[in-house]
Amino acid sequence: MENKGTKPAIVLFPFPLQGHLNPMFQLANILFRRGFSVTVIHTQFNFPISWNCPDFRFVQITDALSENEASNPDVVELLHDLNSKCADPFADCLRDILSEESGASCVVVDALWYFTADVTAKIGISRIVLRTSNLCSFVPFAEFHVLREKGYLPLQESEAESPVPEFPSLRMKDLPWIETKDPRSLDKLLSSLSKALQSSSGIIFNTIEELEMDSLYQIHKKFPGVPIFCIGPFHRYVSASSSSLLTQDMTCVSWLDKQLPNSTIYVSLGSIASIDESEFLEIAWGLSNSDQPFLWMVRPGSVRGSEWIELLPKGFVESLEGRGKIVRWAPQLEVLGHGATGGFLTHCGWNSTLESICEGVPMICMPSFGDQNVNARYISDVWRIGLHLENKIERKEIEKSIRVLMASSEIRERMRKMKKTAEECLGQGGSSYCTLGNLIPHILSL
Ligand code: UDP
């Protein structure tokens, strides 16, 4: 594994979606700082063109996705397409890398690349998996077939509020689900993921053990013999350069500079979730009526049936008189870390949730699909660091929740404590610090 007697070499294979690229590049930086030479194998699809990192070597594989496949809104189909199209190019590329003098004895792949289990077994190289979700949403995903057999999924509307016997913190409507043309393809996806995790040499999570001890115990039971490494929050180890797929609008920061401390609501639904016109307008009026300053990231194409914000009523932006700013993509870490940001109306993607925890910003949860509903339940009911918009997206509910969140010293205090936990886990003797200390020799031993 040694690179001419100097650096151990490692190969990383990120999944080309924003919420997966960010943690993998952060992990790459962590490993680089720990002395590894890093090679990143990447697809043509969704590779961050602005990524500028002289420390890593990048090798592109041909994914051969057609234009239709690349813009498929059915995420499950897109995942299967990428897995089937990348298998051979990845295998060839990996063989080439391994035939070089520097070699590598371990690959770190995103869990969504389930095909890599067979390829790495055939080639005879160890595979560690990065799972970019947290533990509490991962457990129900790992038990997906049981939830399906019991008839909990797809959700029966009449059962939406019932508690899940196997997961007492969750209601039926919180269980992870991804809309797709054929639900059997979701079954196939999740069973392939689970199988690939079972045969891995370890699973890395971007989370903090203290937040989810019960789930960690369940994962050890579910994957006996597979070492689990909770070493998050990744983005706090090193300030990596951005792996953003879209250009960040840096005017957010100077706009925030003009707002009062803790006054502003930041709104973002992440990189994949979309909403319809009426939901978009309800959010707009809820924000406007709250009388609170807001910074709203509306990703182009995220409002179904429109390019960007042209569905807003005429004069809406002017009527805000500078109290609201709308951008296409924000420098989210800077925004959450800005002293003016006092609340986060979020879709509850795990990266966004963890970033908010690290900055001590309480949340209003507006989850959409997949793990987001589980995260929202934990934010509102288990960790109690935010509020949950339980029902349909409605302006009065949004306005009310903003007012309640901004006035709640209890939520803010719990968030302050959780932020401290997130800081302490990285310090000497902290859980993530110690686990990273175990991960490095584990990789070197493979
Ligand atoms: N993000 C960003 N700018 C934005 C919105 C999101 O940089 O305007 C980043 C955010 O910091 C996070 C990632 O995109 O790291 C989104 O990941 P998450 O898991 O929260 O949600 P997903 O997009 O996967 O649904």
Question: Mind explaining what this structure looks like?
Answer:
The protein has 446 residues and is α/β, with parallel strands linked by helices. The chain folds into 2 domains: 9-237 and 427-445, Rossmann fold (3-Layer(aba) Sandwich), CATH 3.40.50; 251-423, Rossmann fold, CATH 3.40.50.2000. Helix content is 42%, strand content 15%. The chain contains 17 helices and 16 strands. It has helices spanning 18-33, 67-70, 75-99, 116-123, 135-142, 144-149, 183-198, 213-222, 251-257, 277-289, 316-319, 332-337, 350-359, 372-382, 395-407, 409-424, 431-445, and strands spanning 2-3, 7-13, 37-42, 57-60, 106-110, 126-131, 163-164, 167-171, 203-205, 228-230, 264-268, 294-297, 324-327, 341-346, 363-365, 386-388. The strands form 3 sheets. Strands 1, 2, 3, 4, 5, 6, 9 and 10 form an 8-stranded mixed sheet that branches. A 6-stranded parallel sheet has the order 13-12-11-14-15-16, sandwiched between helices. A two-stranded antiparallel sheet has the order 7-8. α10 (277-289) links the parallel β11 (264-268) and β12 (294-297). α5 (135-142) runs parallel beside α8 and α10 (277-289) crosses α15 (395-407). It is globular. The N and C termini lie close together (9 Å). The mean pLDDT is 95. It binds uridine-5'-diphosphate (UDP). Uridine-5'-diphosphate is lined by residues 18-19, 22, 244, 268, 270-273, 297, 329-330, 332-333, 349-352, 355.
